[in-house]
Amino acid sequence: MYPKELRYTRDHEWVLLKDGTALIGITEFAAKQLGDIVFVELPEVGKKFDAAEAFGTVESVKAVTEVFSPISGTVTEINQDLSEDPEDLNTDPHASWIIKIKVANPKEADSLLTAEQYEAYIKEGEA
């Protein structure tokens, strides 16, 4: 269910690392918990974030929740499509990235969950 090429946080974000950059989004679990997403607050390009630091918010009909960076780095691109179509995060959350960052410390990814670990974490929380 969760793509194996992604790494995950306990706060329900995902990260795809490739060539010193990282795409970051929210997991399908997070999207389902939020319900219909109506707004995404995006950071400015050039902003630096530490791992576990909030970089924006996702607003749904149920709640507003912060989104945290799984890894340290500098924002190089934001997904402008989410300004017009925030519901893309509900439709295909693992393909709808929120920000792209230039990774400051790739070793931080070693502490993130694999797909199998993340699925076990979710099941544990539902028990």
UniProtKB/TrEMBL annotation:
The species is Chitinophaga flava
Q: Which residues form the signal peptide?
A: none
Q: What does this protein do?
A: The glycine cleavage system catalyzes the degradation of glycine. The H protein shuttles the methylamine group of glycine from the P protein to the T protein.
On the tree of life, the source organism's domain of life is: Bacteria
Q: Which cofactor does it need?
A: (R)-lipoate
**Which terms under GO biological process does the entry name?**
glycine decarboxylation via glycine cleavage system; protein lipoylation
Q: Which NCBIfam families match?
A: gcvH, PRK01202.1
Can you quote the record's cofactor note? Answer: Binds 1 lipoyl cofactor covalently.
* Assembly, per entry: The glycine cleavage system is composed of four proteins: P, T, L and H.
Protein's name according to its UniProt entry: Glycine cleavage system H protein
Any Gene Ontology CC annotation:
cytosol
Q: Which gene encodes it?
A: gcvH
